[in-house]
Amino acid sequence: MNYFTLESDEGASSKPKRSPTLCGTNYPLSIAFIVVNEFCERFSYYGMKAVLTLYFIRYLDWDKDLSTAVYHAFSSLCYFTPVLGALIADSWLGKFKTIIYLSIVYVIGHVVKSVGAIPDVGDSTTHIVLSIVGLVLIAFGTGGIKPCVAAFGGDQFEEEHTEERRKFFSIFYMSINAGSVLSTVITPILRGDVQCFGGDCYALAFGVPAILMIIATVVFIAGSGLYKKAPPEGNILLEVCKCIGCAVKNRWRNRKYGSKRAHWLDWAEDQYSKRLIQEIKMVLRVLVLYIPLPMFWALFDQQGSRWTLQATRMNMDFGGFILKPDQMQMLNALLILIFVPIFDMGVYPLVGLCRIKLTPLRKMATGMIFAALAFGAATVVEVEVMRTVVEPPLAGQSLLQVLNLAEGDVQVTVPGAVSFPDPISSYTDPQGYQRLELNGVNRSLTADIVNNGVNTSCPLVFTEETAYSLVLHSGPAGVQCNLVEDHITKSENGEAYLRFINAYQTDLNLTVDGKDFHAVAGYGVTPHEAVERGGYSGVKCMADGVEHPVDLGLLDFGASYTFILKMGSDGIVAHRMEDVQANNVHIAWQIPQYVLITAGEVMFSITGLEFSYSQAPASMKSVLQAGWLLTVAFGNVIVLIVAEGAGLEQWMEFLLFACLLVAVSVIFSIMARFYTYVNPDQLDKMFLEGDDDKDSLKNHQMEKLNLDTDCKTTKM
Questions:
Q1: Which helix (DSSP H) or strand (DSSP E) does residue 285 occupy?
Q2: Gap between the Cα atoms of 478 and 467, Å rounded
Q3: Is residue 98 within 8 Å of 76, Cβ to Cβ?
Q4: CA triplet 66, 72, 206: central angle to 5 degrees?
Q5: Are 299 and 632 in contact (CB under 8 A)?
């Protein structure tokens, strides 16, 4: 899960009466309300987001690329809006009121989103409109309160209780991941295991997060009387923008006169203090390092989109239980809780014992490599997954396979189109689809069939972008032909497709998983229907008013089957043929990519925040917070562009992202090589209160700040 910037030193200028504490400790009672609020809010957000991609595909009937694009557009908006939330809190309403008002917006968004998932409410256009409106409101709600809640929690502590404040942030972060783990396990269960309105219950899967957000808001308001509420003190981000604008404007105005300054920001000295200008210089040096960072988030945030879609085409059977594809995301949050102490107490000390200088920027670059390796692993998995997928025909093409139900082998040739290389044995699985070039939308062709030395010609008509089965069976005049349309697209929710061919002398009726099949006598073929994955050993087949039990066996994830019904010694039997292979790559093969991406997150995200905040003055922490969150936003924009514009096969897209991140990590390493670590606390020694910008020695020190060896400078 993403780490959020935790401001703890701002907004405590006034000293209201001390609030009650927990069990006589230095922990204010008010933080209990804040921690519970954060747990419920994160449950709400990640629970809704866990099922979002499948909702787009299965409920709104969007394709994978559009679903991925909208998912990442929403994620991006969630990380653009924190800038607006910080502006409102610091300049207008204060943190407390901002959290309450935007939480109400948040709740409304969840309710609208839940209503949009009820099939009886309007038509498909209504569902789309309600869904988009709900997501926009949620994005403004969650993004707007993101920069406020943690900082508001830090405001509750007395200034001297720094250790308690630090532990609070650890507890706060644990509540984030606890909410994430539980929600990504529970909401997919609500979606898939609870049936409503005749299908998956998305209304419930979105409704429960809405209830949790209502609880979060109520709990936060309930603690109102205990909070220390600092008034808004002005937005430093706005002040920084004004200072930069002033410097650019003054430099532009004086370009004709050849005037020079040591740094372009020095052009703002006539309106802004040298301390503020020096602080902005320090922040800008860090923000420049942020430029390559969105590529990491472009990979990281695909866990909820592309990786979830990959999971839908894998085998999810763990023996005792069936995992849902959207539940796999919980592995990231779970691994975070495990990896953080392992890295802090094990990995980093061991690396130090090897006399390797593991600086923050080196950790971040290593985290990028881990994320790239995760997508390398995802590429390998995707290649294996694709082996069971039938590549659909393109424009001007059709697919054809042969089902031989005749007596003896057959040799099939379609002159001018395709020839099946080997004789096709009776009642065996088809050899696989052959691709026919139609050179147009439709094409009439004649199939030449040889069976037991007898030639038969079958006139056939093919339509582009369609898959067919040529069903051959024995008749009075030799081999008879029947061209039927196939379903070759794998189910995105692990269902199996099946159809029946009636080789019995009378009509047959079957019911499988609540689906009715009617197969007429004389090799009639039923359409493909999707049924739940599972074993079907006692299916009832009605023939002439007599019930015959039929064993279909295990209908596995993503497969497509054809059953030929005929009379056997013990009644009607079903001979099974597999048209499309079942998902034979187990979802456990996704574990390595989750392990790698989580290791990358620990080294990149945590270290990145720690580094950023160690390199900037306390007054500029909110500026860096905005910059950090914007890197996440732009990372999602990158995915949106690639998903909509690249048009690559999925494995190629994964490989592209991995290669791009490797290239970006090299660029970042080069940039970091020229970065000099500083100690922002030295600013306090240079600028004593009430004596700002008067001593020339201070100016000299400012120029030396980034080079002074007393600052313990180190390279990446």
A1: helix 274-290
A2: 26
A3: no
A4: 90
A5: no
Query: Quick one: angle between helices 202-222 and 94-116, nearest 10?
Result: 160
Whole-number Å distance between alpha carbons of 677 and 610: 13
- Over the stretch 79-112, which tens digit does the pLDDT of each residue have? 999 888 888 887 888 889 999 999 999 999 999 9
Q: What is the Cα 224 distance to its own chain's centre? A: 35
486-514: pLDDT as tens digits: 999 888 778 899 999 999 889 999 999 88
Q: How far apart are CA 608 and CA 600, in angstroms?
A: 11
Of the candidates 181, 185, 224, 190, the residue with the CA atom closest to the CA atom of residue 210 = 190
Who's near 558: CB < 8 A, 6+ residues apart? 313, 388, 490, 491, 494, 495, 496, 580, 581, 582, 583
**Cα gap 99→93, rounded to integer Å:** 9
Quick one: which of 312, 333, 337, 3 has its CA closest to 186?
333
Q: Which residue has the tokens 């990281």?
A: 300
Integer Cα distance of 442 and 260 in angstroms: 73
d(CA 572, CA 566): 5
Three-state secondary structure readout of 349-369? HHHHHCCCCCCHHHHHHHHHH
Backbone angles phi, psi at 58, to 5 degrees: -90, -35
> Residue 351: CB partners within 8 Å, gap ≥ 6?
358
What domains, with CATH codes, occur in the chain? 1-234 (1.20.1250.20), 273-388+586-678 (1.20.1250.20), 397-580 (no CATH)
Contact 452, 379 (CB under 8 A): no
